[in-house]
Amino acid sequence: MSFFETLRLKLGSLNALPILSVMGLVSGLLAGGVVVLFRLFIQSGVVLWHSGEGVNDFEGTPWWFRLFLPLAGGFLVGFVLHKVGKEKRQVGVGHVLERMTFHQGYLSWRNAVVQFLVGGLTLATGQSVGREGPSIHLGSASGSWLGQQMKLPNNSIRILVGCGTAAAISASFNTPLAGVIFAMEVVMMEYAVASFIPLILSSVTAAILSRIVFGNDVAFTVPSLELASLWEIPYFILLGVIIGGIASLFIVTTRIVATKTLLWTSWLKCGVAGSCVGVIALLVPQIMGIGYDTVNAALHGSLSLHILALAFAGKLLATIICSGLSLPGGVIGPSMFIGAMLGGAIGTTGAYILPDYASDYAFYSMIGMAAMMSAVLQAPLAALLALLELTNNPNILLPGMLALVVSNLVVSQLFRQPSIFQSQMRVKGLELKINPLSQFLRSVGVAGLMERKVAVHNKFISCQEAEDLLEKTPRWIIIQENDVPKSLMAANDLARYLVEMKEKEEIKEQEGDNTVEGLVHSEPQEIDLFSIPGDRQDIAAVYLQGNLEEALDTMERETVEAVYIFRTTAPLKEKIYGVLTRNDIESHYSYKR
Q1: What is the pLDDT of residues 87-138, one digit of tens each?
Q2: Of 36-45, 198-207, 361-370, where does mean pLDDT reach its minimum?
Q3: What is the distance between the alpha carbons of residues 323 and 330, in angstroms, rounded to a whole number?
Q4: pLDDT tens digits, one per residue of 310-334
C-alpha cells in the first residue's frame, strides 16, 4: 500500500487528528500565501492611479475621478464576468457555502482565478465592497485544492476548506482567533475538536505569513478606551436594537435588489452598480473602496456627526446596490464600516443628551462595528472575538456582548431574517442544510467506519476455495457476477453451509450413497453463492473519499442497506476496501450522541 493510500485511509478514520493538524498547517501556508498575493495585487492596482500617501484615501481625488473610476471599473468587471461564463463567475462566500452544502467542499481553482482577478479589479476601482469575501473564497479554494490534489476523503476536504477560511480572515485582519471561530461558525457551521486544532494551526500560520509581509499592525488602529459609566448600559442595548433594525433592512433590501435583477446580464449588473457608486461618491467619497481609513478616523473620534451620518447613509446604500447586483466583493468590511459610522453617530447623540455619563463616541464606533458585523453575518462569537483582537481591550467586552446579542436577536427573532449569505443563496433557489445529523455524517469518512474484513468472490466457488477464503476470517463476502459486485452475504452463512454439507456427505457415505444433494452447480464441489441459504442483500458503491452522509444518501437512492467502499486503480478496475451497512452508521451515531 502506497504512502498516499495509507494517508487517505487514516484521514478517513476516527483518529486522524495528528495528520489533519499537519494538513492544516500546510493549508495555512498555501491559503495565507494566496491571500497575501491578493492583497498585494489590490494595492498594486490602486497604486497605478493613486499617488497619495494613503492608497485608500478617495476624499482628496477630483469629482470626475470619483464618478468615472467606479463606473468604468463596474463595466470592466461585468464584461470579464460575462466572458468567463456562468459556471466560472460563481464567486464569493455564498459560493463557498454552496459548495460546502451540496458538493462536499469541492471548489474549482478556475473560479478562484476569476475571483482573484475580478475581486482585485473591483476593489482597485473603488467599489463599495470588502476584500474579505474574495479572500475567504481564495483561502477556501486553496484548502480544497490541496485536498483534491491529494485525493483526501471528503470529510478531510471540508476541514481543509475551513482551514483556508480561517487563514483568509487571519491574513486579512491579523485576527487569528476570530478567523478560527468565523470558519467554524459561518462556513463549517460546527464546533468540533477534530477541526478546531487544524484550524488554529492554519490561522496562526497565515497570520505569521501576513505579519512578515505587512507588519504586526491589525486592520484598524484602536485607542485604549473605557466605559465611562454603568448608566450607559441601557444605551448600548438601544444601540443593539437600532443596529439590528438596520442590519435587517440591509439584508431585506439586498435580497430585493438581487431578486429584481436576477435575470440581468453580468455586465449590466456590475455596470449599474459601479455607476451608482460613482454618483454616491460625488457627495460622500468616504464610501469608495474598503474604507478602513474612514473607520480608523471614527475609532479615533476624528469625524463630525455630519460626516458620520453621511458616511453611514452613503455606505449603506452603496453596499446594498453592490451586494444586490453581485459585484464580486465582500460584505464583512462594509458592514463593519456601516456599524462604526452608526455607532459613532449614536454615541455622539448620546453625549449631547447626557454629557456627564457618556463614553467617547469612538467607544460606540468600536461596538457598533462588531454589532453590525455580527447581525449581518449571524456570527456573534466571531464578531465578539474580532472586536477583542482588534481593540486589544477587555473593557469593551461587557457592553459589546450586550449590543451583539441584542442586534442578533432583533435580526433573527424579531424580523426573522437569515444571514446575508443564506439570503443570497435563497435568491438562487438554494437552502442550506443545517441539522445535527447532516453535520455529524459529513464529519466522518466512510474509511473510518467501514468493515475491512471483507472477501470478494464470483458467484461460483469450490469447497476448497471456500475453506481457504474462510481461513482469513472475513465478516462479509461480496458476491460478484461478471466481475461486478451484486450482493453482500455474511461469511458465517457460507461457513454454516459448508458444515451442513459435510454432515450430509458423511450421512450419505454411511448410507452408501455417493451423490451429494444440495445447492451445487454442474459438479458436486462447486457452490452457487446466490443459492445457498443465507441473508443476502443488494449492495451499492461509494467512493473511498466519501463520508457517511454520501453513504446514507446512496443507500436511500439505491434502496439498499449496505455499500461497498472502492477506489478506481486503473481504467475499468476497482479496488474494494470494505463494507458499510446502515446499521453501522446508526449504531455509531447513537453511540456518539
Answers
A1: 888 999 999 999 998 898 999 999 999 999 999 999 989 999 999 999 999 9
A2: 36-45
A3: 8
A4: 999 999 999 999 999 999 999 999 9
Spell out the alpha helix ranges (H) of 48-127: 63-84, 93-102, 109-124
Scanning the structure block, which residue is given the C-alpha cell 471540508?
A: 158
For residue 577, give the 3-state DSSP assignment: strand
Q: pLDDT class for 569, splitting at 50, 70, 90?
A: confident
Cell of 414: 424579531
- The CATH architecture that domain 230-427 belongs to is Orthogonal Bundle (1.10)
Measured CA to CA in angstroms, residue 456 lies from 51, 467, 544 at distances of 71, 14, 17
Residue 307: closest CA among 298, 299, 316: 298
Is the separation of the CB atoms in 387 and 400 below 8 Å?
yes
Spell out the residues 6+ positions from residue 590 whose beta carbon is closer than 8 angstroms to its own: none
Q: What is the mean pLDDT of residues 262-269?
A: 94
Determine the Cα–Cα distance for residues 326 and 269; give it in Å rounded to an integer: 7
DSSP state letter for 357: G
Q: Say if CB 13 and CB 95 are below 8 A apart.
A: no
The owner of cell 449599474 is: 272
Q: Which of 342, 407, 332, 323 is nearest to 371 (CA)?
A: 407
Which CATH number is 3-216 given? 1.10.3080.10
Q: Do domains 3-216 and 230-427 have the same CATH topology?
A: yes
Query: Residues 36-44: what's their mean pLDDT?
Result: 90
Q: What percent of the chain has pLDDT over 70?
A: 92
Neighbours of 498 (CB within 10 A): 16
Q: Are 363 and 396 in contact (CB under 8 A)?
A: yes
Instruction: Show me where the domains of the chain are located.
Output: 3-216, 230-427, 446-592
pLDDT at residue 405, as a whole number: 95
Q: Are 387 and 290 in contact (CB under 8 A)?
A: no
Residues 579/450, Cβ–Cβ less than 8 Å:
yes
d(CA 82, CA 385): 39
Cβ neighbours, 10 Å, residue 230:
10
Closest Cα partner for 252 from 434, 427, 432? 427
Pair 374, 407: CB distance under 8 Å: yes
Q: Considering only CA atoms, give the Rg of the chain.
A: 30
Position 13 scores a pLDDT of 59
Residue 303 and residue 499: Cα distance in Å, rounded? Answer: 90
Per-residue confidence band for 85, with pLDDT thresholds at 50, 70 and 90: confident
Cell of 79: 464584461
Residue 181's pLDDT band (cuts 50, 70, 90): very high
How far apart are alpha carbons 580 and 559 in whole angstroms?
14
> What is the CATH topology of the domain spanning 446-592?
CBS-domain (3.10.580)
